């Protein structure tokens, strides 16, 4: 394509409100345009990249045996009422009325629609499994849309839903999708990890997120330096931590006067032991689905931190709210001196798994200015013990003896074993081998299609602009005519453009009547993987070849250029 | 693909509310599913057909030099306020508020978004022309959604918008789009006509509709039997009609007592002349954009009929409303005796072009029980004369001497010279060669993408089901295994399936454990262009080949089948 015939409105201005490089560069290089809060148009360059991404996803999904469908974007509210989500889903669900005052929603996800498509159309185990997917617009009315395509309100998602007669079959599909997603993100040229994820309140028996490693990522992910283990911080596990040093002396369990000792550091100092041998209490106010609230205490080792999502899952609540001093007093708790022994009646508590059967621990005595030493964590019901702590840099991998470290990632995909959450509530059943009616066992599988464009940039860019990989770049190569008034330069470039085009290579020919500097700046901003600069040295049969990643330049003979391009694009 | 692995939930039930064959068959054969009034999901078969249609449209649009973009479906209301359409557009425009109480619309069309994308990004005539298009979801909150995909609320449209520095350039693009659409609909295998269309109140200097000929079409289109002329009935023209017979005697203009003569038939009878020599008055109450109303009279030949859209355009109103006897009386009009001479003060009227300078006409005298004979239609201002009449079967073509006939069509595309309607109201300008600021001259170009699936069926089907042409059929051929328990039949079919697949042919292998009759009924309902039936005669090396169109069957040797298929699909 010729630059003079395409619409690439680049700008030098730094755009306020665009804090991330992907947001900044996609706007400045003319890939996207904002037309409202969290609403973006795709300009020609953006649409080219988008189409490449979509094509790879569609090809691999079809290859996996999943069937492409499409659900209407405007969805009748009755589907969402039946599943219970019309009321429960927050304000992100955009609800509206049509001219006849009927309720509708703009789909933020399509579990309900998928179940409705299959319900009564598949009635026997003989026609299972089935995996249907779509690549379609979604809308989530985010409270604070930001970061451009990374957290917009309107976006495109690939959402797939599988239906099975049993868990075993679901597990096979889950594994197949794991492989399919791996193929997709590999073909997209991204540096990603499939990480264990929190299955959340929906339950379900398994969940994996696909994270692209990027400094500006919103998510913390834990990776092992020696095996394949990786997990979202919310779901990360470790080998139970051990104390490297002398164990403390054995003590009879006894109460000690510890005036004004309120922090763990002070406590360890006071008893001259490592924080490893202390137990701290984290007090939370848990809000449940029925809107009721309850105080819950989480006991963890003094040197650990509570992982909030794990804590939420442990007590089965929706979220935590701030707790006032007054509320703590009212419940007869002694802030700073809480321990798992002799808690006031009716206080719910959980203890971290790693504390099970630990001896010689120091705990609060639930009495002002007193702690208990020589405590053994036993005599608690099994249900009290949960995984509650946040994995840290340097912890030991749960799968090998490797070292774990924490890095930043951006979520691009999520595969999830749903179970019967939606088939049950929407009453979608099939007849099994014995003629018995059963709800479908379901899985769901998402990829954020439009956000992948931003993610690709977040994973590779420099201070001059985008650096696209060749898999999804809008063009593979850009030919820059240094001076279009030089007939030789122009004709040589046009010829090369045609020759490469005949080889099926996507070329952008910068034939604009602009200064060389302007064209070079635009090239760097747009970030096409390679460029050929046709300049003054053409008279010596020499042109320049540039790799965008690193801006590596080399002089090359005009006789070698086609082979060079073929080689780098192979 | 194997039938056992795909999701094609066919049903024998006739579906109530589905009055058109396309609606009935698309639902029954498992191409689409309804999930609300005017809302449809696409099942795998439907999505396959849709994708083929979309691909052809995208390829030809790109080939024409138009650039693919995408506009957000949720559009801020301020765009529509600026253009004036937020208030003016009827209830079909779905308006809603987000969580922050800001107004938005679901795009029913995207002139505003297109202008916004180009505004301030193209500032010089040097970067014109530009044509941007998208293939995207639209929503129109129809009062009475019906006919399945033909008049749904959510649908997919290809909408393109071109920007030019002058009319000449717009005309070139309009002509190019005429050719591009012709290529698209030809590749889609449709029997269509490009017809002259009403440019409507928006004005603009030209407009063509692309109509697929179909008995169940909503539109009347006029076609010539000997030249290329074709037009929507609302825009159709003809050679002025002539009277074949003896002209009436010459009369002095004089008033005649014509008691109780109210209809044109009675009048012609009374004076023993042909209706050709009478003028009838059609009285309308016109409603204007500013909500005011006015009585307007349209005078046309007694043997013609008023074309309402032409009449609306003639007086520049939005629509006509019913007129009560009381309102006629109040305005001092004498119903049944209205004529263009001596009308009460303040009554607006128009006269059909063909009446200009006609002599010896009989008109109402604007006096009860009186008519005037010997009237010559002259002495009226030129602005009074407009094209007002509806072309009839048998009228003479305006371009040649061919005969016009009226047939039914379904609109699938519309190309339109918009002019400056939107660039002016949205203040979108560029600098011309002289550095002068000017509004863009625009064109717009639409194709109803999802409705094409229904249109293809309306243009060809039989009482058993769909008859897809090979260009957009979900599969090119279906191999039906008569009895899957017969190992020879099964293995031969599977082999043929693989062989054809290797040739790049899309094959559906009906490998289901169902009776032959069930499979055959499904084949006929789904309407794949060709089928091979592998049955008992396989032992004699003979199978059956079927063409869906006409259900023509022939026995064929297994040695010839691949060549046969290659030939019919060429």
Automatic annotation (TrEMBL), chains A, B:
Keyword annotations: Aminoacyl-tRNA synthetase, ATP-binding, Cytoplasm, Ligase, Nucleotide-binding, Protein biosynthesis
Q: Which organism is it from?
A: Campylobacter portucalensis
Question: One of this protein's Pfam families, by short name?
Answer: HGTP_anticodon
Any one Gene Ontology molecular-function term assigned to this protein's record: aminoacyl-tRNA deacylase activity
Q: What is known of its domains?
A: Consists of three domains: the N-terminal catalytic domain, the editing domain and the C-terminal anticodon-binding domain.
- Indicate yes or no for the key word Protein transport: no
Asked whether the UniProt record includes Ligase among its keywords, one would answer yes
Q: In its UniProt entry, what is this protein called?
A: Proline--tRNA ligase
Q: EC number(s) of the enzyme?
A: 6.1.1.15
Give the first-level EC class, as a single word: ligase
- Description of how the protein assembles with itself and partners: Homodimer.
**What family does the database annotate?**
Belongs to the class-II aminoacyl-tRNA synthetase family. ProS type 1 subfamily.
Quote the subcellular location field of this record.
Cytoplasm
- GO biological process: any one? prolyl-tRNA aminoacylation
Q: What does this protein do?
A: Catalyzes the attachment of proline to tRNA(Pro) in a two-step reaction: proline is first activated by ATP to form Pro-AMP and then transferred to the acceptor end of tRNA(Pro). As ProRS can inadvertently accommodate and process non-cognate amino acids such as alanine and cysteine, to avoid such errors it has two additional distinct editing activities against alanine. One activity is designated as 'pretransfer' editing and involves the tRNA(Pro)-independent hydrolysis of activated Ala-AMP.
Q: Where is the Aminoacyl-transfer RNA synthetases class-II family profile domain?
A: 38-474
What catalytic activity is recorded? tRNA(Pro) + L-proline + ATP = L-prolyl-tRNA(Pro) + AMP + diphosphate
- Which cellular component terms (GO) are annotated to the entry? cytosol
Looking up PANTHER family in the UniProt record yields: MITOCHONDRIAL RIBOSOME PROTEIN L39/PROLYL-TRNA LIGASE FAMILY MEMBER, PROLINE--TRNA LIGASE
SUPFAM superfamilies referenced in this protein's UniProt entry, alphabetically:
Class II aaRS ABD-related, Class II aaRS and biotin synthetases, YbaK/ProRS associated domain
Please indicate which superkingdom the organism of origin belongs to.
Bacteria
């Amino acid at each position: 394509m010729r630059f003079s015939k395409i619409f690439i409105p680049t700008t030098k201005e730094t755009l306020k409100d665009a804090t991330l490089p992907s947001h900044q560069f996609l706007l400045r290089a003319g890939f996207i345009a904002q037309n409202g809060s969290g609403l973006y148009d795709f300009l020609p360059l953006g649409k080219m990249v988008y189409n490449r991404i979509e094509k790879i996803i569609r090809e691999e999904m079809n290859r996996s045996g999943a069937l492409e469908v499409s659900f209407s974007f405007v969805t009748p509210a009755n589907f969402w009422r039946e599943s219970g989500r019309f009321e429960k889903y927050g304000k992100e669900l955009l609800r509206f009325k049509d001219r006849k005052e009927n309720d509708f929603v703009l789909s933020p996800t399509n579990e309900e629609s998928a179940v409705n498509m299959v319900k009564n159309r598949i009635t026997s185990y003989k026609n299972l499994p089935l995996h249907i997917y779509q690549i379609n617009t979604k809308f989530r009315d985010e409270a604070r849309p930001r970061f451009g395509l990374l957290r917009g309100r309107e976006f495109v998602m690939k959402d797939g839903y599988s239906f099975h007669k049993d868990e075993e079959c679901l597990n096979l599909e889950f594994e197949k999708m794991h492989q399919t997603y791996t193929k997709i993100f590999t073909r997209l040229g991204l540096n990603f990890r499939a990480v264990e994820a929190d299955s959340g309140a929906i339950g379900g028996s398994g969940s994996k997120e696909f994270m692209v490693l990027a400094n500006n990522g919103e998510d913390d992910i834990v990776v092992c330096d020696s095996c394949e283990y990786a997990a979202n911080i919310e779901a990360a596990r470790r080998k139970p931590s051990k104390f490297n040093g002398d164990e403390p002396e054995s003590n009879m369990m006894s109460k000690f006067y510890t005036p004004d000792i309120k922090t763990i550091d002070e406590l360890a100092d006071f008893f001259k032991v490592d924080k490893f041998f202390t137990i701290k209490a984290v007090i939370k106010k848990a809000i449940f689905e029925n809107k009721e609230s309850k105080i819950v205490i989480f006991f963890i080792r003094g040197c650990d931190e509570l992982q909030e999502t794990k804590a939420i899952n442990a007590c089965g609540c929706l979220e935590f709210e701030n707790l006032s001093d007054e509320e703590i007093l009212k419940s007869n708790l002694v802030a700073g001196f809480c321990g798992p022994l002799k808690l006031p009646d009716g206080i719910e508590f959980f203890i971290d798994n790693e504390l099970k059967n630990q001896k010689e621990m120091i705990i609060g005595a639930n009495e002002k200015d007193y702690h208990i030493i020589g405590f053994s964590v036993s005599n608690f019901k099994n249900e009290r013990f949960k995984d509650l702590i946040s994995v840290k840099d340097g912890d030991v991998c749960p799968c090998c003896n490797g070292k774990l470290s924490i890095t930043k990632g951006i979520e691009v995909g999520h595969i999830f074993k749903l179970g019967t959450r939606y088939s049950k509530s929407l009453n979608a059943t099939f007849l099994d081998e014995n003629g018995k009616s059963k709800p479908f066992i379901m899985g769901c599988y998402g990829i954020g299609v439009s956000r992948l464009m931003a993610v690709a940039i977040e994973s590779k860019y420099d201070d001059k602009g985008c650096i696209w990989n060749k898999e999804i770049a809008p063009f593979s190569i850009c030919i820059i005519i240094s001076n279009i008034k030089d007939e030789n330069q122009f004709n040589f470039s046009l010829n090369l453009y045609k020759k490469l085009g005949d080889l099926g290579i996507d070329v952008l020919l910068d034939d604009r009547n602009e200064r060389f500097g302007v064209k070079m700046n635009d090239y760097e901003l747009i970030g096409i993987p390679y460029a050929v600069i046709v300049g003054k040295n053409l008279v010596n049969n020499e042109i320049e070849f540039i790799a965008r990643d690193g801006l590596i330049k080399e002089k090359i003979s005009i006789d070698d250029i086609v082979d060079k391009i073929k080689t780098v694009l192979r």
